[in-house]
Specification:
Elements: E1 5-10, E2 13-18, H1 29-43, E3 50-55, E4 59-61, H2 66-69, H3 74-93, E5 98-102, E6 105-107, H4 109-116, E7 119-123, E8 127-129, H5 143-151, H6 153-162, E9 166-167, H7 168-174, E10 179-181, H8 186-198, H9 202-215, H10 220-235, H11 238-248
Parallel strand pairs: 2-3, 3-5, 4-6, 5-7, 6-8, 7-10
Antiparallel strand pairs: 1-2, 8-9
Length: about 260
């Protein structure tokens, strides 16, 4: 179905694998278009409860496809960046949790793709970086904005302005990833996290993601009001009745919307 990605679903966990290993999984227009298509379908697929995003071979995504970008004029470059933002925003705002299993190089657009996910789990061999200034450009898939929100403005400026590449342990230290795993255990760790999340109330997971994403840039008063409204929406669900009932009855919940 897809030429540049693989997609499979196993017991409610969807796995999207970017599959251009000879090009280090570089993001070109075709890959971005396929990513947008698959995540649009995932959004409406009730079978999928959580998603793992990873790369085939030695790289998660080694960056945008420079060979393609080099040929673009400013209008073409803008169109590519707009498509990239469309993909990243979809992944960030899809109601289902998306876990990046960063198996290797996550540079440029690859780092930006990982940052659009909800949770990042990195192999001990993973490398992160935003090398764009060495090419005469800046991050264009949301990197100047998401990186600052994840690691702070000063560290984001340092990483972007120096184009320094960092390893998994440093990425964990500064908050660019949430877990580090041995390379051979990366996908099993990501799957364990995905299954843990998928076992919870799906409406609550979706609502929590919405509350965090939308409230993050609000002032505290507005964010608190937004949390109350999203809490009320979750409190009105059948999942709330089942979850609390199961707790009181000392049994495992059976969420109908799972």
């Amino acid at each position: 179905m897809y030429e540049n990605i693989k997609f499979e679903v196993n017991e409610g966990i969807g796995t999207v694998t970017i599959n251009r290993p000879k090009a280090m999984n570089a993001l070109n227009m075709d890959v971005l278009t396929e990513l947008y298509d698959v995540f649009t379908k995932i959004e409406s697929d009730d079978e999928v409860k959580a998603v793992i995003l990873t790369g085939e071979g030695k790289a998660f995504v080694a960056g945008a496809d420079i060979a393609q970008m080099h040929k673009l004029n400013p209008i073409g470059g803008r169109q590519m960046m707009m498509l990239g933002h469309k993909v990243m925003n979809l992944i960030e705002n899809i109601e289902k949790p998306v876990i990046a299993a960063v198996n290797g190089f996550a540079l440029g657009g690859g780092c930006e793709l990982a940052m659009a996910c909800d949770i990042r789990i990195a192999s001990e061999k993973a490398k992160f970086g935003q090398p764009e200034v060495g090419l005469g450009i800046i991050p264009g898939f949301g990197g100047t904005q998401r990186l600052a929100r994840l690691v702070g403005k000063g560290m984001a400026k340092y990483l972007i302005m120096t184009a320094e590449m960092i390893g998994a342990d440093e990425a964990y230290r500064i908050g660019l990833c949430e877990k580090v795993a041995a390379p051979e255990e990366l996908l099993s760790v990501a799957e364990k996290v995905a299954r843990t999340i998928a076992s919870k109330a799906p409406i609550a997971i979706a609502t929590a993601k919405t509350a965090i994403n939308n409230g993050f840039d609000m002032d505290m008063k507005s964010a608190s009001k937004f949390e109350i409204e999203t809490f009320t929406a979750a409190f009105s669900s059948e999942d709330k009745t089942e979850g609390m009932g199961a707790f009181l009855e000392k049994r495992a919940p059976e969420f109908k919307n799972r």
